[in-house]
Amino acid sequence: MTEGERRGAAGLARLEQEVVACRRCPRLVAWREQVAREKRASFAAEEYWGRPLPGFGDPAARVLVLGLAPAAHGGNRTGRVFTGDRSGDWLFAAMYRAGLANQPTSVHRDDGLRLKDAWITAAVRCAPPANKPTPQERDECLPWSVAELEHLKDLRVVVCLGAFAWDAALRLRAALGHPRPTPRPRFGHEAVFDDGAWLTLVGCFHPSQQNTFTGKLTEPMLDSVFRRARELAAAG
Question: Model-level pTM?
Fold first, then answer.
């Protein structure tokens, strides 16, 4: 690890402690803690995380995977984004096939999962009711993403899981001082936007059950996105 990578890793570790202590959004705090108390019957014996989720992965990552928010009984339970839910099952299996993860499953925080050349995070760090954060809650979380990217110096590509993440990436770009693209690029599966001013955006349907159960998103489609992201990261 280079000196720059060590500084980045140390900065991300400090940021993680700040993120998990956040209580900026009263509605989200109340919901995440209610879910952690009441629990789902199938997880009744488990201790829920019930706090905001930091990003995780390789501090030298060139690929950023950006989701919407933690699942109430997924990341909000396990303490790691996309961990312990069906969306994560699809996502990490695809990242494993792409060589971005050392194993295809993500069950709990201490399951040995390691990411290589990838960092994964969410636009909103707390589980929202009905999986729908408000615009104010989205904006309250934006500074955490800004701070995160200040420590991820090698990023080249953002894989945006869904239209919400695509919009969040464009807002993040503006918050970091880069010009707003005109016309505004439209989200789509395998859509690519790169105007040379910031990171390359790659659109991907969210690996939610709504999409995977209906066939809107298939494994080959997900594999194609990560293959493209790796190609773009290498070219950059």
Answer: 0.96
CATH of the domain at 31: 3.40.470.10
Domain that holds residue 119: 3-235
Q: Is 49 in contact with 75 (CB distance < 8 Å)?
A: yes
CA neighbours closer than 13 Å in the CB half-sphere of residue 53: 35
**Model confidence pLDDT, tens digit, residues 97-126:** 999 999 999 999 999 999 999 999 999 999
Structural domain tally of the chain? 1
Contact 227/98 with Cβ under 8 angstroms?
yes
Is the CB of residue 65 less than 8 Å from the CB of residue 159?
Answer: yes
What count of other Cβ atoms lies within 10 Å of the Cβ of residue 40? 12
CA-based angle 197:153:208, to the nearest 5? Answer: 80
* CA-wise closest residue to 66 among 127, 194, 157: 157
